[in-house]
Design goal:
This protein is mainly beta. The protein contains 3 helices and 53 strands.
């Protein structure tokens, strides 16, 4: 007996210990912000910026399943990458100037789970949300960052709401998309500002880092007073030949900043710009440089002689942050005070170590190394194994002076290779799971002005040496094969290259558009493992020939059926999937007397039905009674989310009000699928006429 008690005591102690361990670590696990392992939960799909989602793409009977563009931000659209999801829900940001509904959460069926109402301003569109495996969403504008807990769709709430403190930085700040580091630290790059770090559990800001702060990096020749003709010439030279003075080394494509020879070119800074305490004002016929007094008023002591001026600045984030472990990587451009935000001739790739538990705040974000490159960059760095891949080019409208390059830099800061390329890109690279990466060769902005938009193709490169993989280029005009009215127009790729499917059978999602303001916008699915064959192309509704898929894609799943979701440029979120069909399996009706009145007349129609769907869908039943003179109409409706089984049996009632005219009525019953299309409509005539009930007049 003593031995049994002793064994029970041991078992109890072990059980209590296990329970204590579980309860100790469970809150920690739940508080971590864990992205979906298949990808798609943040900007460019994952912290490596791979553009990969390891989920299937619908391949047969594909069309627009639904399109939400009715409320708030949906009516305006989104100019950013816009959308992210975890396979169950998606979150999209918008740029509604009124601030209404700039973050909306959706489910597979297009139901709006939650909206931010007036919580976030229009700058939220510059930042793609993050969605974790628990249906929690991190999003921000330039003033606040929030975490929305949608783990219970019946009780969606803001778990925390914290201000973004950027101190004395400029009003032109924009939030770039957040990245999660080690599941617990949110890092947020700010355009024209610092990099910020937040605790994912509490939302508290824990660190701030301004890169290259107070570096004097681009001296220029300032001429205090000149006539308008001379100034116009200087502006032209500045645009065509970049900011001077500088010494360009054509061998290594870097700017050497020790040149002491002024080229008498002043940087183009619109009409007003500031350097330290000197303000330049463009007036009607000349440019005057004056001293700035008290930062608000101008004194009259005009500078009389030209000289070399310098401005202390910093390196501003320009793209999203890539992460590997606790080290993050970000491309930047030099910025100094003034209305022109960047020096377009110098950029840096920075590596920063994130140590959220460090005692000193200055140690929580610490620069490890930097790599200087020429010009601006459009692509967030893509990490493949131990190498970062990104672009750089001279930001000038003169195409032949752009000098685009593709860079490969090891994660220790050592250059792996760099190559020149004919045309720029406006999008990040996409990792091909079979090896190599894809480059989007197109300049969509130039299509607005009828300019040369580049190659209008997708090009695959080897990781090892940067050479193009021959026979793999995808020409957009060829693959679209448009036979419509604008078949002779160019076809441009205009979205992120989201690569889905499996490691061996990847499928790429990409938009293909005729130039802006020209009819013809599509989303394509391309089978990369089958000689880059087109699987499907779905046209995008465009009331202005300006609406298109301009960002990234995410995929939601319901019972093994998949839908591709994306934001559109001038309105709402669209879902592409297997085209839904629904129909009445059975339908009858019966008349009865409503208990709400005192008479015994039949004034209520009860419609009984069984509805069948071809796949999980959100459907609507609408029943309408129409008077014999067709003037009076009384209707009711009901919505269903049908998943498993793919049918529902139910009924709805329509009761005539007391003021309804006597006589016969026609009963219409319609079922709508989630795309808003009527799949089936049935009509019954002579309702409330006992001699001719239940007569089916029409079935369409």
């Amino acid at each position: 007996m003593k031995e049994e008690k002793y064994n029970l005591k041991i078992i109890f102690c072990i059980g209590a210990t296990i329970l204590l361990v579980i309860t100790t670590f469970l809150p920690l696990c739940i508080s971590n912000f864990i992205l979906p392992p298949q990808g798609g939960g943040m900007v460019h799909c994952d912290p490596q910026m791979s553009e990969n989602i390891r989920l299937p793409v619908p391949t047969t009977n594909v069309g627009v399943a639904w399109y939400c563009h009715e409320i708030g931000g949906e009516k305006i659209g989104s100019y950013g990458n816009g959308i992210a999801g975890n396979g169950r829900i998606a979150a999209s940001t918008f740029d509604n100037p009124s601030g209404e509904d700039n973050l909306i959460l959706y489910d597979y069926y297009g139901n709006r789970i939650w909206s931010s109402e007036n919580l976030l301003n229009w700058k939220a569109a510059a930042s793609t949300p993050m969605v974790d495996i628990y249906d929690r969403v991190v999003a921000c504008d330039n003033k606040r960052i929030i975490l929305v807990d949608a783990s219970d769709h019946n009780n969606v709430h803001v778990e925390w709401n914290k201000p973004i403190d950027i101190g004395s930085f400029f009003n032109s700040t924009l939030p770039i998309s957040p990245t999660i580091v080690d599941n617990k630290t949110i890092v947020l790059p700010i355009l024209n500002g610092p990099i910020l770090a937040f605790n994912a559990q509490t939302g508290d800001q824990i660190a701030e880092l301004t890169l290259g702060q107070n570096e004097t990096i681009n001296p220029y020749w300032g001429i205090p007073e000149m006539n308008w003709t001379n100034y116009d010439t200087i502006r032209y030279n500045s645009i065509c030949h970049s900011i001077c003075p500088f010494k360009y080394n054509s061998a290594n494509h870097l700017i050497e900043w020790n040149s002491s020879i002024p080229f008498e070119l002043m940087p183009c800074k619109n009409e007003i710009f500031i350097d330290n305490n000197i303000v330049y004002l463009v007036q009607d016929n000349h440019v005057t440089a004056s001293w700035l007094w008290n930062h608000t008023e101008l004194a009259n002591n005009t500078i009389e002689t030209g000289q070399i001026y310098t401005g202390e600045g910093f390196f501003s984030s320009i793209n999203s942050i890539c992460a590997k472990g606790n080290r993050i990587f970000v491309t930047t451009q030099y910025k100094k005070p003034g209305t022109r935000p960047f020096n377009d001739t110098i950029g840096r790739l920075y590596a920063i170590d994130v140590n959220p538990d460090a005692t000193n705040e200055s140690d929580r974000l610490r620069e490890n190394w930097s790599y200087t490159f020429f010009g601006v960059s459009q692509a967030s760095p893509t990490l493949i194994d131990d190498t970062l891949y990104f672009d750089g080019y001279n930001n000038t409208p003169i195409r032949q002076n752009r000098d685009p390059h593709i860079y490969a830099v090891y994660t220790n800061g050592t250059e792996k290779w760099k190559i020149s390329y004919d045309n720029i890109t406006l999008f990040s690279f996409a990792r091909d799971p079979r090896g190599g990466f894809w480059y989007e060769d197109s300049d969509q902005i130039r299509s607005l002005f009828g300019g040369n938009t580049g190659g209008n193709k997708l090009v695959r490169f080897y990781e090892e040496n940067g050479t193009e993989i021959k026979g793999q280029a995808i020409d957009m005009k060829t693959i679209l094969n448009d036979s419509g009215s604008y078949k002779d127009k160019p076809v441009l790729p205009c979205s992120d290259m989201t690569t889905c499917g499996t490691e061996t059978n990847p499928i790429m999602l990409i938009s293909a558009n005729h130039p802006l303001l020209t009819e013809g916008k599509w989303v394509l699915a391309i089978d990369l493992s089958n000689n880059n064959q087109l699987i499907w192309k779905v046209p995008i509704y465009s009331w202005s020939d300006f609406n298109y898929a301009g960002g990234q894609y995410t995929i939601l799943n319901e019972s093994g059926h998949y839908r591709v979701l994306f934001g559109t440029y001038v309105g709402g979120v669209m879902a592409i999937g297997e085209y839904p069909n629904c129909w009445f399996q059975n339908i009858t009706y019966q008349l009865r007397d409503s208990p709400e009145d005192t008479n015994t007349l039949n004034d209520t129609v009860q419609v009984n039905y069984t509805i069948q769907t071809s796949l999980p869908d959100n459907i609507l039943i609408e029943a309408t009674l129409i008077s014999e003179d067709k003037i009076h109409r009384y209707e009711t409706e009901r919505c269903y989310n049908i998943s498993s089984p793919l049918s529902v049996t139910d009924n709805v009632n329509i009761t005539l009000p007391l003021q309804a005219p006597e006589g016969m009525y026609k009963l219409n019953v319609s079922v709508y699928n989630s795309s808003g299309r009527v799949d089936q409509s049935l009509s019954f005539i002579n309702i409330f006429d006992d001699s001719d009930t239940n007569y089916k007049a029409d079935d369409t």
